[in-house]
Amino acid sequence: MDKRTERESRMISQMERKLATYQPVDEEQKQHALAEHLRSIAPFNKRWQKNFIFQVTETINEGTYGVVFAVRDVETGVHGVIKVAKAIGSDAGNQTAEWEGFVLEKMYKKNPQASIVRLLDRGMLADQNGEAMQFMVLEKAQYPIMDWLSNVNHFASSLLKFEIFYAFF
After folding, report:
1. Which InterPro entries does the record associate with it (predicted)?
2. Superfamily of domain 3-141
3. pTM for this prediction
């Protein structure tokens, strides 16, 4: 593929993502259609259900590339979060989810004692239109990661980045 064609395909892919994520303001119910659909098909993978122990039914986050719910393993009672990638034009959400899963598995295999969330499960679901979506279930961090990172000093943050980089080699 020559440079012009490659550039054009990247631009088309970017436009598809923008079109796929465009939601008209006056159609608020469409904006949350994926989250509502996912709530209706729980438990996911016949194992993970929304966290009903504490009567929490809220969505943790709903963004451009997917939805995140608090879940509980119906077999073991372990709490986690399920990240579901939206099916969009160029499949970027699924590719990102696949990459995240790969990175977490590689880090955990390299050092099982590492202080990272474990990948508990992953697979495929169908959205409300029948499109394939990647999902992964992660251990639920008891302390919000962004809060922790904002409280870490610069040296510790640099050391953490080095350790993450080192985990791949």
Report:
1. Kinase-like_dom_sf (IPR011009)
2. Phosphorylase Kinase; domain 1 (3.30.200.20)
3. 0.56
